[in-house]
Design goal:
This protein is mainly β and 109 residues long. It has a domain at 3-76: Sandwich (Immunoglobulin-like). It is 0% helix and 30% strand. The chain has no helices and six strands. The strands form two sheets. It has a three-stranded antiparallel β-sheet with strand order 1-4-3, with no helix packed on it.
Length: 109
C-alpha cells in the first residue's frame, strides 16, 4: 500500500458516491481501489530503475450527470541497501619489496 486518495462531495444520494480510477496509464506499476481509494503497486519497484512516479487519479460520482475531480499522486522511492559491492576481478596480486613502508601497492576496483 502506498497511500489513499480521498475525495469529498457535498451532494446527497448517488451524487455523493464516487469511484476512484487511474486516469493516465503511462506506467502500469500502480492500481487504485475504486471504492476506498487505496493506491498500491502491481509489482516491486526498484529505485535504480526509476526513482519517481506520477499517478494521475480521478474520482467520478455516480450522478445522472457525472462530475469528476482529478489529482496527481507523486511517489518517490527511497533507496535501500539492496545491491552488494562488486569487485572487477575475483583476485588481485601485488609484489612488494621487503622493508618498504608507506608506499602505494595496488588499486582494487
Amino acid at each position: 500500500m502506498i497511500t489513499y486518495v480521498t475525495a469529498t462531495d457535498e451532494d446527497d444520494g448517488t451524487n455523493a458516491e464516487w469511484t476512484y480510477t487511474i486516469v493516465d496509464r503511462l506506467s502500469n506499476e500502480f492500481t487504485v481501489d475504486g471504492t476506498n481509494g487505496e493506491v498500491t503497486t502491481l509489482r516491486p519497484l526498484d529505485r535504480e530503475e526509476q526513482d519517481t512516479y506520477e499517478v494521475y487519479t480521478s474520482a467520478v460520482d455516480h450522478g445522472e450527470s457525472p462530475r469528476s475531480g482529478h489529482t496527481y499522486v507523486t511517489v518517490t522511492l527511497i533507496d535501500i541497501n539492496d545491491n552488494p559491492p562488486v569487485f572487477e576481478s575475483d583476485s588481485y596480486k601485488a609484489t612488494v619489496p621487503e622493508q618498504t613502508s608507506d608506499i602505494f601497492v595496488i588499486t582494487v576496483k
